[in-house]
Amino acid sequence: MVGKALETLFIKVWVIVKLNLFFWLFSVCGLLVAGVGPALKTVNELFITHEFNYKEITLKEGWKIFKKNSIRGNVLFYATLLLLAVLAYNLFLSVQIQGLAFLMIDFLLVFAMIYGFVTYQYTLLLDSYYEIGLKNLLKLAFISTLSNFTNLLKIAIGISVILFVTWKFKGLILFGTVSMIQIWSFTATKSWRQTIDQRLELHA
């Protein structure tokens, strides 16, 4: 029993490490600027397809997915990055002004940044899970984030914990942080994806 539990733990850790190394490899292949977005989509798609079947997660398949997602991955990534940059700049300006009204604005801006990042996580997951156009993908991601506030909190809190642990153990940046965020987002939204599947079956 203990041996089986240790084996399962080792496999999960190895998948996390493997996917994270793939992320950095593909990011470097895109010279970071054009590689991070597609690399994130690649990690998502590999995990959604194979989950913890580590033997099925191969560099060859990852490279194929990376090339396929090059444009779309960058569009989603940089659109989100631009949105977060605008919100962060407004937050920077707002925190310099005192007053209750501006405190409320600060809160709304922080929430908007969290919401924007979680919505991006939804776009990655849903785009890997379904064959869907970009416009409908964005609509579904926004609806998904608004439809289940509990999932939004779960993703946000989980990512915060991962980032806090990473801050304490910097080596995770290379070996685990990115893949753990994607895997946690996948796990936290499982019930919602099942709901979408059921609704699609009813309208099939």
What does this molecule look like?
This protein has ten helices and no strands. It is globular, with a radius of gyration of 18 Å. The model has no long low-confidence stretch (mean pLDDT 89). With 204 residues, it is mainly alpha-helical. Helix 1 (2-29) crosses helix 9. The longest helix is centred in the middle third of the chain and has 30 residues, at 100-129. 84% of the residues lie in helices and 0% in strands. It starts with a helix and ends with a helix. It has helices spanning 2-29, 36-50, 59-68, 70-94, 100-129, 134-147, 149-168, 172-175, 177-188, 190-202.
Task: Please sum up the structure shown.
It contains 10 helices and no strands.
Low-confidence stretches: none
Q: Please provide the count of β strands.
A: 0
Q: Radius of gyration from the CA trace?
A: 18 Å
Percent of residues in helices: over 70%
Order of helices and strands: HHHHHHHHHH
Euclidean distance between termini CA atoms: 43 Å
Helix/strand/pairing category = mainly alpha
Q: How many helices in DSSP terms?
A: 10
Quick check: average pLDDT?
89
How would the global form be characterised?
Answer: globular
Reported for the largest beta sheet, the result is: none
Percent strand: under 5%
Quaternary state reads: single chain
